[in-house]
Specification:
Elements (H helix, E strand, L loop, with lengths): L1 H24 L4 H40 L17 H10 L2 H20 L1 H6 L5 H31 L14 H4 L5 H20 L2 H22 L7 E5 L16 E9 L4 E3 L8 H10 L2 E9 L4 H30 L2
Antiparallel strand pairs: 1-4, 2-3, 2-4
Helix pairs in contact: 2-6, 4-8, 4-9, 6-8, 6-11, 8-9, 8-11
Amino acid sequence: MSTMTSTGSTNSSSSHSVRTEAGRGLRLTGMNWLVWRQHRAAYWTLLVAAAITVAMIVYQRQQMITYLDGYGYPHLKSGWEDKFDGSPLSSAGRLLGFLPVLIGVFLGAPLLAGDLESGTAKLVNAQSASRVRWLTTKLGVTALVVVVCTTAVSVAFTWWWSSVKSSLYAIDWAGPDGFDNSGPVPVALTLLTIVGGVAIGMLLRRTLLSMVVTLGFAVIVQLVWSHFRMSLGNIVTLTSEKGVGDGTFPSVPSGAYVADESYLTASGDLIGTGSCTEATAKATTACLDKAHVVGWAIKYIPISQMSSMQWLGAAILLALTAGIAAFVILWGRKRLV
């Protein structure tokens, strides 16, 4: 009887130990715990904001689908555009476009600058953990939270927009509201802004100054990206040699982004449409005849290229991010404190 009691006690103790070890295995420890503890307010704010955003997108999409169902969605009948309200979609696109900037300024810039300014970095580096481990953990945990949040929002927004993606009554796929908020692009843009902010904070060592400079950096990234975005696609040229009169303008595929319109001459050259802008129709016709214009040339990018353009652009942005992250680790290994 005593043996059975002892055995039962041992089994109970063993079971408690297993549960304790299992519980410990689910908890953050060491440097991961320190980084999460230090920035938990920012991380939780980001996670909660992402969850609320996804919930709102799901609700808005359901409202839109309810309307589209009345026109036979997904095979929409003509006339659905007449009363279609695309303002929630376009407003969401504009607001989501600010997320990379805000996250970079309020999370990326203070990540190291705050520790360097307050002296926490010296305290951490006085412990057994190396600077490289501290830096990689800081970047890794932050990047993980950012990737989870931005991926969730991007997937939800892409799902919402895909119902009317190719329609001219929805947001323009070639513009920032559509292209930059769907697929892998928002994840890559946000990571680049965040890691750029971390590097700026590491170099400047002042939180407020780093946030201001990171804001400028984020704006520059957005401007450069907006000029670079459409160069990721392969231009398709459509020509028509039926003259330039009424009804002779060539039609491009639905949803295509028109990059340029030109006059086509008999020799195959292209001239700008503004070269024969005259005061009267007679003068314009004389100018066209003199230039031997025989038709139009339209350069466009079909919407079918959007996905490949996004992945190519995201790959470039992530490569830049990796380069900046490597700089942060290499610089910080010797010169951080």
